[in-house]
Design a protein that fits this description.
Chain B: Pfam families: STAS_2. Chain B: This is STAS domain-containing protein. Chain A: Involved in the transmission of sensory signals from the chemoreceptors to the flagellar motors. CheA is autophosphorylated; it can transfer its phosphate group to either CheB or CheY. The complex is a heterodimer. By secondary structure, chain A is an alpha+beta fold. Chain A is built from 19 helices and 25 strands. The termini of chain A are far apart. Chain A folds into 5 domains: 135 residues, HPT domain (Four Helix Bundle (Hemerythrin (Met), subunit A)); 97 residues, Alpha-Beta Plaits, CATH 3.30.70; 57 residues; 181 residues, 2-Layer Sandwich (Heat Shock Protein 90); 144 residues, CheA-289, Domain 4 (OB fold (Dihydrolipoamide Acetyltransferase, E2P)), CATH 2.40.50. In chain A, the strands form 6 sheets. Chain A has a 6-stranded mixed beta sheet. In chain A, strands 4-5-3-6-7 form a 5-stranded antiparallel beta sheet. A 5-stranded mixed beta sheet of chain A has the order 9-11-12-14-13, covered by helices on one side. In chain A, helix 11 packs parallel to helix 12. Chain B is of the alpha/beta class. Chain B has a single domain, classed as Transcription Regulator spoIIAA (2-Layer Sandwich). Helices cover 47% and strands 18% of the residues of chain B. A 4-stranded parallel beta sheet of chain B has the order 1-3-5-6. The relative contact order of chain B is 0.21. The chains are: A alpha+beta, B alpha/beta. At the A-B interface, helix 1, helix 7 and strand 4 of A face helix 1, strand 4 and helix 2 of B.
């Protein structure tokens, strides 16, 4: 049993950590908005449940430090639930700090730690709430004349706030073997019950067989617990909630509260029949609308559907070769199948999409910590948190965003004094926004700080020998210098962003996920970093074309127009360099043949793609022939071969051949720049 | 009489092994609990099974050197009776 059992335990442990991540995300979400709705009791309840769930799971795995801290946090939250304490800005700050501590403890156990020392300051801060006085409601004197509102007079009513009354409960419980199979233990339940008050536990051992007859994983015991507690009954019931159907518990209030309730469903435990207790208001179990699936299975599904798409291409390729028309019976069947595969692919890719909220929420902590370290006041505003992004992109987005957020606070937002002098609110504003545009995901990091200083950036770039003195650059080009390796305008290395990771690494990380970053900045008003990302890295919609006898793909998002290329209209602007009239202006021309190292012959080139990039810059890209417009499964070049300039990725076509996918930004960045100056001079 | 030294963790993953070890005991059950840090529900049940077996066979059941953690685990699960009956310090 041991190897399988260990694997099972690891899997269950992983599920627990996944659930912790979900609970912590929900906790962050609720805490972030708690300050806006301090009277919202449901929010405190949700927060309490998150902490309670983490505690329940942690107890099952013996993570005692996590249990201890979450128990303390839970006890404090209970004071807020009961109205003994009220929510204000300070308490929200404390709760957020505690959420961060919970996150750290979970992370430590996830990484194999057996214990975690919680900062005593945080514990002390929490404990203060345990011992704080209940808020006193001072009723107005009875002879005070009450406001007359719309003709109605209100008189104060004295509210008696009593100490919670102690109740006595009898709990009879049996457990199913599944409780142990999923890593939990009756011991945890008994410890939790004991933590609620005074308990007396007796165990009925009559059904336990002798050692030669016992099945070690079966459950034979029945426990009876007499519990005296001041906790509300709901708290008692919550202890059993985490165990679901694996515990059959009958709770009876004693002696005058003869309410009996069955928690969870009966389980097949070999116990003696007892008189059926009165069942009243059984607890409803929430039906979950989700199914937890190992991400590797979904990744495998995405890969398999990718192969299916390639296979579909092969069928179409064979049809063309055998001159089977698209409107034939077979053609119609193949077209219908193509549509189904397309839908299947979109659905599976959506399954792998996560809301960007998961990354944004982690940044909440980064903002708090950076603000604390820099002594600045920063308000974080999140927008478009439900925007979904492929998981593979999301995983790689966290680090660059973290660095950019730190930078925005450390270098962008000014301290309160400077902001006051500039007539700004003392509290800086950092806005994180995500939305979809033209089939891509846009993530913006916007601050209302000092803005970028182009003169300072230029000077620094010269000083660092990134550019030469006197070099002509426009404002955007100057801003983009901050992404050059070794660039930093900050003389002093700070604890916050001077950690050896420059903006060049940020740019590289974003490029790995086909992301582009643009900067809009206004001196004294702030800076916006706009990151453009694909929705997925798995599939691309593109146009397949031929050049020099080979097949290539250009992403359809980058093609604004396709026109017949008229060689006679092209004009010479330098050695092998051409311009082409387009609407009221001119476009620089790049021949596909050029990027393959050939010289265009001027006869084969018949099609012109008007290609545009994220900055709405355009160019004429001349190819020999358009083959088709389709969706292509993307294959990483570096993983399968090596990086090739001009091409971002590759795909496998229906005939089994490989087609490279154009890196449009490279065309604009490396090739076009050389042409632009020549074109300007000529025109 | 041989003494079966109990491990630190008498948890679910140890239940099958523990059952086998107890079945291999000739007649009497003499256990050493000095190292025990935690006792889970299934192993607790096996201890009870051994205790009942000893009772039926008029054999001896004793736990020597019970660690504080083991004592606490047994107490939490309602095994006080069982300590006073089968424990030898």
């Amino acid at each position: 049993m041991s190897a399988d059992f260990t694997d099972d335990m690891d899997a269950i442990r992983q599920i627990f950590f996944d659930e912790c991540d979900e609970q912590l995300a929900l906790l962050e979400e609720e805490l972030t908005t708690l300050g806006d709705e301090p009277e919202n009791g449901e929010k405190i309840n949700t927060i309490f449940r998150c902490v309670h769930s983490i505690k329940g799971g942690a107890a099952a795995f013996g993570m005692e430090d996590l249990v201890k801290f979450s128990h303390l946090f839970e006890s404090v939250l209970d004071r807020f639930r009961s109205g003994a304490c009220s929510v204000n800005a300070d308490s929200v700050t404390t709760f957020l700090k505690c959420k961060d501590v919970l996150f750290d403890i979970v992370a430590a156990f996830k990484n194999g730690a057996c214990s975690y020392d919680v900062d005593p300051e945080t514990t002390a801060e929490l404990e203060q709430y345990l011992h704080s006085e209940a808020p006193v409601i001072q009723p107005k004197s009875e002879d005070v004349e009450m406001d007359d509102i719309f003709g109605l007079s209100f008189a104060p009513v004295k509210i008696e706030i009593d100490e919670p009354k102690e109740c006595q409960y009898s709990i009879v419980m049996t457990v199913s073997p599944q409780l142990y199979e999923r890593g939990d233990d009756i011991r945890n339940i008994l410890i939790a019950l004991e933590g609620m008050g005074q308990s007396q536990v007796t165990v009925d051992i009559d059904n336990v067989p002798v050692i030669n007859d016992i099945s070690p994983c079966q459950s034979y015991l029945t426990w009876q617990i007499l519990l005296v507690t001041a906790e509300p009954r709901a708290n008692l019931e919550e202890i059993f909630e985490w165990s679901g159907d694996d515990i059959h518990a009958v709770i009876t209030s004693l002696p005058d509260h003869a309410e009996t309730e069955v928690i969870a469903t009966p389980c097949p435990v070999p116990v003696e029949e007892k008189p059926a207790p009165q069942v009243k208001n059984p607890v409803e179990r929430r039906d979950s609308a989700t199914v937890r699936v190992d991400i590797r299975r979904i990744d495998k599904l995405v890969d398999l559907i990718g192969e299916l798409v390639i296979n579909q291409g092969a069928i179409q390729s064979q049809m063309r070769r055998n001159k089977i028309l698209g409107d034939s019976i077979l053609g119609n069947v193949v077209t219908a199948q193509e549509q189904l595969i397309h839908e299947l692919q979109e659905n599976v890719i959506t399954m792998r999409a996560y809301p960007i909220k998961t990354v944004f929420q982690k940044l909440g902590r980064v903002v708090r910590e950076t603000a604390r370290l820099t002594g600045k006041q920063v308000r974080l505003v999140l927008e478009g948190e439900d925007t979904e992004v492929d998981r593979s992109i999301l995983e790689k987005l966290s680090d660059p965003l973290t660095h950019m957020v730190r930078n925005a606070i450390d270098h962008g937002i000014e301290n309160a004094e400077i902001r006051s002098q500039a007539g700004k609110d003392q509290e800086g504003l950092l806005r994180l926004r995500a939305f979809q545009r033209s089939g891509r995901i846009i993530v913006e990091i916007q601050d209302d700080g000092a803005g970028l200083d182009p003169d300072r950036i230029y000077e620094k770039a010269v000083e660092k020998k990134i550019i030469e003195k006197g070099q002509r650059l426009d404002r955007e080009e100057i801003y983009s210098l901050i992404f050059e390796p070794g660039f930093s305008t900050v003389a002093e290395v700070t604890d916050v962003s001077g950690r050896g990771v420059g903006m060049d690494v940020v740019k590289q990380s974003l490029q790995q996920i086909n992301g582009r970053v643009f900067i809009i900045s206004s001196k004294g008003k702030g800076t916006t970093f706009s990151i453009s990302l694909p929705f997925t890295l798995s599939v691309i919609e593109g146009i397949i074309f031929k050049a020099e006898g080979q097949d290539f793909v250009v992403p359809v998002n980058n093609v604004s127009e396709t026109i017949i290329y008229d060689t006679r209209k092209a004009f010479h602007i330098g050695e092998g360099k051409y311009g082409y009239p387009y609407r009221d202006g001119y476009l620089s021309v790049i021949y596909a043949a050029e990027i393959l190292g050939s010289v265009p012959d001027g006869k084969s080139q018949k099609i012109c793609f008007v290609i545009e990039n994220e900055n709405d810059e355009k160019m004429a890209f001349i190819v020999d022939k358009i083959i088709d417009h389709s969706r292509f499964v993307v294959k990483n070049l570096e993983e399968n071969y090596r990086k090739i300039a001009c091409f971002s990725t590759a795909t496998i076509l229906g005939d089994g051949n490989v087609a490279f996918i154009l890196d449009v930004e490279f065309l604009f960045g490396e090739l076009l720049k050389k042409r632009e100056s020549l074109l300007e001079e000529k025109v | 009489m041989s003494v079966l030294s109990l491990p630190e963790m008498l948890d679910t993953s140890y239940a099958n092994t523990f059952a086998e070890l107890l079945r291999n005991e000739e007649k009497d059950f003499c256990l050493d609990g000095s190292r025990v840090v935690r006792v889970g529900g299934l192993c607790f049940q096996l201890l009870i099974s051994a205790y009942r077996t000893a009772q039926q066979q008029d054999a001896c059941f004793e736990i020597r050197n019970v660690s504080d953690a083991m004592r606490e685990s047994l107490r939490v699960m309602g095994g006080d009776f069982f300590l006073s009956a089968g424990e030898k310090a």
